[in-house]
Amino acid sequence: GAVVSQHPSRVICKSGTSVKIECRSLDFQATTMFWYRQFPKQSLMLMATSNEGSKATYEQGVEKDKFLINHASLTLSTLTVTSAHPEDSSFYICSLGADTQYFGPGTRLTVL
Amino acid sequence: GENVEQHPSTLSVQEGDSAVIKCTYSDSASNYFPWYKQELGKRPQLIIDIRSNVGEKKDQRIAVTLNKTAKHFSLHITETQPEDSAVYFCAAVKGSYIPTFGRGTSLIVHP
Question: Which of A111, A108, A112 is nearest to A37 (CA)?
Fold first, then answer.
């Protein structure tokens, strides 16, 4: 299967700052990547589909101006949480794949 | 769109017992059903999957069954071990569409 990395693995930031999370495909060219958010003891909530070379597709209720997604190459997608607030604290995971999904290790974001 | 229901939300068993997690789906066009295991603080990883042209698949202590008519599929873990403790997610996939995940089952295996 595909090997997916994420950076950083955890980040703590102050309220109002922006945080960028990178998702890299190490051995697979992905035209599409997915971004999920996961609260403790809850399921994976799809936030958006990242499309290489075009705009991301956001799920209903996800603010596109709050969660900026860029997919500039076939191996890299980034999620930027802008003007982060404590309620944005969560575990963010990316994935790629056709039917089987290969997940990144996740990024634990804590906003103080 | 597709809707996947997963039960139970929590399952507690004694080591050596069997564990069964059940999922139902709503879209009869879904044709691929993967199961993922997520250990605490780690990424979900595929443990077994089944396609709609198959009724059952087994891999050592893990098996998955699919009933297309009833639109439900189940994960069976036999001879459970403490390292099986994790959150398990089922998913339903239709063609090249994005998977729809169940809400997850927290499996606790007591030594």
Answer: A108
Alpha-carbon distance A71 to B109, whole Å? Answer: 41
Residue of chain B with shortest Cα separation from A91: B41
pLDDT in tens, B51-81: 988 899 999 999 999 999 999 999 999 999 9
CB contact set of A100 (below 8 Å; sequence gap of 6+): A1, B34, B46, B49
> For residues B31 and B28, what is the distance between their CA atoms, to the nearest angstrom?
8
Place of tokens 């990144």: A104
Distances (CA, A) of B45 to A2, A57, A72, A106, B88: 11, 24, 26, 12, 9
Q: For chains A and B, count residue pairs whose Cβ atoms are closer than 8 Å.
A: 47
